[in-house]
């Protein structure tokens, strides 16, 4: 039968409920270590937004996986970068992707930027019970290219707290356990280096984020660095007026050799 509500309403009608209730007096089993992932960042560059993340997923002090993808395409001009619990974050990304598709197909138009931001906030807020249990916190960065902002459009960066509050960043955002090691470097680069982030070309921006992720990995054991021998490189995507582009590993390896490993 046809459904008149939004995609969230359709999911609940079919018996799907995102998140979980907190059981009274509940706590994690002794010795349980949820899988987590860090570090992510997004920066403006001269054609839009560049988003990057390391590849390591950890559970306590153990490295669970060194090829985790933390930068996820949601639609043609939206990317969600995740820090925290990959299991919950991947579910949020899947629900968002289908939410945007459902709106586009049912309303025959794209969901507005404000609508997208509200839906990200809602999913994070509905995950609060898991966050309070210490098992499923997700702190994402949501980057978009807003085609409706001016004649050429504009790249925009948003980050969220664990309660779903949304903040727009002027030039960059970073989160995850390795972010304190690089936030100051981003501020310095943008304000005093003589090369503001938004003036950088693609290759220069890729080199910058690779150096920053290498710095985060040096000071944070939960952040994975680059391993050329094993062909493990950060995930890097760009969003511009033309859409989303995945930077190939070969290109990342070349820039890493020229600008980082020198």
UniProtKB/TrEMBL annotation:
This is Proteasome subunit alpha. GO terms for biological process: proteolysis involved in protein catabolic process. One of its GO terms (cellular component) is cytoplasm. PANTHER family: ATP-DEPENDENT PROTEASE SUBUNIT HSLV, METALLOPROTEASE TLDD. The keyword Amino-acid biosynthesis does not apply. The keyword Hydrolase applies. Gene3D superfamilies: Glutamine Phosphoribosylpyrophosphate, subunit 1, domain 1. SUPFAM superfamilies: N-terminal nucleophile aminohydrolases (Ntn hydrolases). It comes from the Bacteria. One of its GO terms (molecular function) is peptidase activity. The lineage of its organism: Bacteria, Candidatus Handelsmaniibacteriota. It comes from Handelsmanbacteria sp. (strain RIFCSPLOWO2_12_FULL_64_10). Keywords: Cytoplasm, Hydrolase, Protease, Proteasome.
